[in-house]
Amino acid sequence: MLFSIIFYTLLSSAVFIYGIGLSRLTFYSQSPRLYFIKLFKMLCTVSATSSLSYLFSVYLLGKNNLQDMFPFISVLILLTISAFIETILRLSTRTSTAEYALSFLSIILAMGESNSLSECVIISCACVLSFFILVPVINTIRKRAAATGKNPMDIFIVLITFAIIMITSLWWNTSWLNSEVFK
């Protein structure tokens, strides 16, 4: 389980490999004040939705040969749980934390790559964590750009820097560096 957490959070980050949440990453780095509230909400939503979606798809959809319906069922479960948690957080903190795309794509990824309920929850939460680990990095890039006199909202500089980070962190994943290629 620890390997799955490390793999999906750092080594095979959902943001780096699949591009999940890449467009939202720059938006979330603009408001670090709500960082932990959004992290809490998304972890609660994703863990509850992935577990319910997994159970629903295995025990109901799988037995009736309706596996193709699991994205639709997952969306319905996600909207229900997210609306419930959003209402609680809006009443208690008076902030909106609505986010559906990142949660849904993390759940779909976890459902496709898991073999058990625990793996499904771990993979989906690790995908969300990989996103939120990168938010302070992008925020630091924005502050560095502002310190050098560049416009901190200049999305081009942020995305170019992010692309350089992606290339340097995934350089080992090229086939010509793999020793198995030369055998």
Question: Which features characterize this protein?
Answer:
183 residues, mainly alpha, 8 helices, 72% helix
Structure description:
The chain is an all-alpha fold and 183 residues long. It is built from 8 helices and no strands. Helix 1 (2-11) runs parallel beside helix 7, helix 6 (101-113) crosses helix 7 (117-147) and helix 7 packs across helix 8. The model has no long low-confidence stretch (mean pLDDT 78).
Helix-strand pattern, N to C?
Answer: HHHHHHHH
Low-confidence spans: pLDDT under 50, at least 5 residues? Answer: none
Spatial separation of the terminal alpha carbons: 32 Å
Count of alpha and pi helical runs? 8
What is the tally of beta strands?
A: 0
General form: globular
User: Into which percentage range does the β-strand content fall?
Assistant: under 5%
Percent helix, as a range, is over 70%
Q: What is the SS-derived class?
A: mainly alpha
Average predicted confidence as pLDDT: 78
Give a concise summary.
This protein is mainly alpha-helical and 183 residues long. Helix content is 72%, strand content 0%. It starts with a helix and ends in a 14-residue tail after the last helix.
